[in-house]
Amino acid sequence: MKLDIREIPFSRFGSYFCVSQEKDSEEIYIRDVHGGDDAPSKLFKLDILHDDVEKGLDILATETAIRFQLTGNEEKYAEIIIPEEDELHIQTSGVEVRLQASKVKYDTLHEYEDGMYEYHIYPKELKLMISKLSGEFSVEAPWNVIGNDFIDIRMKNGHFVIESYRTVYKQKQYASFEAGKEKVETLYREWKANITKSNEVYQSSIDRATYITWSSVVHPHGILKDYAMYMSKLWMYNIWSWDNCFNALHLGAKYPEMAYSQLKIFIDAQDESGTYPDFVNDKFVSYNCIKPPIFMYVYEKLMDKNDYFKDENRLREIYDSSKKVLQYYDLYRTYEDRIAHYKHGNDSGWDNASLFHQGMPVEAPDLASFLIRSYDSLSRFAGMLGEDSEAKQFTKKADSLFGLLMERLHDENGFFGRVGKDAEKIEIRSSLILRLPVIIGYRLDKAVMDQLVADLVGNFETQYGFATEMLSSPYYKENGYWLGSIWAPVTYLLVDSLLNFGYSEIGKRIRDKFLNLTLVGGMAENFDPISGKGLVDTSFTWTSSVFLELVEKKLEVD
């Protein structure tokens, strides 16, 4: 695959290193994604010089190597690989690489020994060892009381390594550039062979999604106790609750241990109140926003994929953890005789959806539906674990909550929300979020479900799938995030429900529209519903995972 590093960063499985190019300035940076997306990621601005002058470049990037060569002269180049998770290797021939550090006040570089410099990066609590294995190496880093005024590193006609670590450098032998390149190529071939089938129509999207999922994984570090798939290494480099579930879903068949670890990240970080965090990275856990429960929904699907997930100890861990999550909603998110509420649009994952424009808190039918489905799943899991009395309690809870949903948040025109301390009816009904009760289609009367599906098709279906806001709505906004854009996880939930609850023709049509959308907009965070253009973060794993899951199902069934 020819990789555009303006759209998708160059990286590899397990590494926090990546290389990308700014779209506007076209500047190229070696970056590091430790600390999540609130931490500065730029390490060095990278330029290629010839006779001390910047020249025009051709950037030739594949899944395993990136080469910067002088325009019209392929023999004069610099090439980067990441053969080990914490090692970035640079090889130069006929050109000079200039690295200019993106440093702050206390960041310091000093000579460690001949041909080796150690760089201490304060905001990231990280150290780099920059070593010359061969070639010409020069450093200009004038000292000024508490740090270097600037850092300028030059590399020419040789092999150089940048290695990251937290505390102390351990002397080691580095592999040759060719051996390192061969190693990472082998690793990627193995991943690609396992991840999905080939298909002529969708091969470009398969290649893109396969690379994004592989290259967005980071190794255990700090808070992260196992390999974790970030949402992206371009912009949103955290692991968000919800996103992790869709990534786990596709990993489940061939990489069950890794799939389970994506869920375990949040189980390990579960608060004593019962809630999961909003997001986790190697350094930080945030509980600012609380996403609706989806773990049980995903885990049932994982059990269908691989017997690994039927192990009683794992099932028990998911069961016990999910009970605490649902108890959290009962104790801390539900007023008496009402339905659980959101305190912010971000709680739902639909940050700025029109449902939330009148204020907070909001009783929303999507949250109620996720809770009902979770209680139904808990009841099934309780039966499998021999907890018969709890199984009955959970079914009773689901029945009660379903009755309350239909009483409080449904009328002859469909589902709606309520807002504020007085639970006033929200008149804005133009958001797709109000149609998510299709996920409990197995409980809804056929007339209610038929009305929901007709509403979806009549008011939200576009050339590329379901828009998140009616195009006719005054709240619809081009590149409006949840005010119209198409999103992969919502598409998956709706397609899955349509296929399973008697609307398979529509489900397949929407599935195929989404698959075709990726041929236009790539694996972006979300998409324009009219043009199909990829929007915001253009290298997103939950989009990639949903695509791979849907295309695999299509190839299996169709």
Automatic annotation (TrEMBL):
<dbReference type="GO" id="GO:0009311">
    <property type="term" value="P:oligosaccharide metabolic process"/>
</dbReference>
<keyword id="KW-0378">Hydrolase</keyword>
<keyword id="KW-0326">Glycosidase</keyword>
<dbReference type="GO" id="GO:0006487">
    <property type="term" value="P:protein N-linked glycosylation"/>
</dbReference>
<comment type="similarity">
    <text>Belongs to the glycosyl hydrolase 63 family.</text>
</comment>
<protein>
    <recommendedName>
        <fullName>Mannosylglycerate hydrolase MGH1-like glycoside hydrolase domain-containing protein</fullName>
    </recommendedName>
</protein>
<dbReference type="InterPro" id="IPR054491">
    <property type="entry name" value="MGH1-like_GH"/>
</dbReference>
<dbReference type="InterPro" id="IPR004888">
    <property type="entry name" value="Glycoside_hydrolase_63"/>
</dbReference>
<feature type="domain" description="Mannosylglycerate hydrolase MGH1-like glycoside hydrolase">
    <location>
        <begin position="237"/>
        <end position="543"/>
    </location>
</feature>
<dbReference type="GO" id="GO:0004573">
    <property type="term" value="F:Glc3Man9GlcNAc2 oligosaccharide glucosidase activity"/>
</dbReference>
<dbReference type="Pfam" id="PF22422">
    <property type="entry name" value="MGH1-like_GH"/>
</dbReference>
<dbReference type="InterPro" id="IPR008928">
    <property type="entry name" value="6-hairpin_glycosidase_sf"/>
</dbReference>
<dbReference type="InterPro" id="IPR012341">
    <property type="entry name" value="6hp_glycosidase-like_sf"/>
</dbReference>
